[in-house]
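Example: Dihydrolipoyl dehydrogenase.
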Amino acid sequence: MADKFDVIVIGAGPGGYVAAIRAAQMGLKTACVEKWVNKEGKTVHGGTCLNVGCIPSKALLETSHKFVEARDHFAEVGIEVDEPKANIAKMLEFKNSVINKNVGGISALFKANGVTSLEGKGKVTSSTEVEVTDHDGNATTYTADNIVIAAGSVPVEIPPTPLTDDLIVTSTGALEFTEVPKRLGVIGAGVIGLELGSVWKRLGAEVTVLEAMDSFLPMVDSAIAKETQKLLKKQGLDIKLGARVTGSEVKDSEVVVKYTDGDGEQEMTFDKLIVCVGRRPYTQGVIADGVGVELDERGFIFVDDQCRTNVPNVYAIGDCVRGPMLAHKASEEGVMVADIIAGHKAEMNYDVIPSVIYTSPEVAWVGMTEQDAKTKGIEVKTGSFPFSANGRALANNAPEGMAKIIADAETDRILGMHIVSQHAGELIAQGVIAMEFGSSAEDLALTCYAHPSTSEAIHEAALAVEGHAIHMANRKKR
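Written out as structure tokens, the predicted fold is:
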């Protein structure tokens, strides 16, 4: 038997590494197990988010956006440059440097906070034991008073499109294309599909997105979703709704995809195909038979509101439990669990978790949509404001989009905020903070905002809830 710890965390993604650091800060002897190795065979922390997800995709989104700005929009504001060229190899080099800096930062934080890093695959073998199998196949059992499972998730694969090296890939492979495909197919018009489709469209690919659902971004307020679809179509993304993929075939380094839509059987040929139909919890092999931790039919671990499993002193957080598969949700659960283990009272407000799609413009939301409220029988009032009437957005040459606030008709409490605009992912924090403190739309309307700023669109949307937006015509008078 090896060392004993107060806490052992399985997984060093955004949920696991945060939980481990927080536990160590609370004075608990903590270890974190991670099996991920890079191409050099070195264990790396950060999980999907830092290595093949949030961070590298944002690096490519930002560089490709800058390329489009230089190519298509610099001249509009008086900057004349020779026609820019996209150096894909250099972009990938930048992306990898960003990954390395983030991963190295976590390793440094582990050392600074006294977290023991255990390299290998972790498996819960009892309520107090974790078996760690290193990369050479040697197993060591560690004991702990508390165990936190933060094993994350992996992309869903579908039978009609079996993965084929460098031709039919998941989001991971789509971050490694060494050249721009002429014809790119994307299965799934969700967050990941739209982001990756945007990257390669900006760099010159003809992109077709096949979405099985008949509605576009159903989790977003319908007005914002409609505006987003219009803007993405204008950029050249061909989004086909109600297109259910039924099969694929690789022919001469091309992918022939078959799908059905309202007009019957269809077929398209692509040079590359990205499968972005969601993610599933990575729990297989993480919990030994007989431990008793309950899972549902999809592999998610059952937990209560404070992430306790049915087995005492065993917790689970992040993508392997209920709720949105978001890095920041996992991190906050990690903090909550560490605080609980340390003997503090802690909880998390699951009604106020923001979501962002990092297309251009960005799409961000928190709380209810107007359609959610109607389904729940809640009477609401709404206010919206276009960024085309915002001085800073016009000065930024980014007038696209709108902000919308949904408030309870009786209490005026803010129930949701939805934005499509430049930097919407930053602006949405206003809605998160307002809702966390139970603010009313009037609270935002009475707040003094800096001018000129794109945040003023939020102010105007709050004023518009009562029909008093200043910079819009045809508004109600008191």
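The mean pLDDT is 97.
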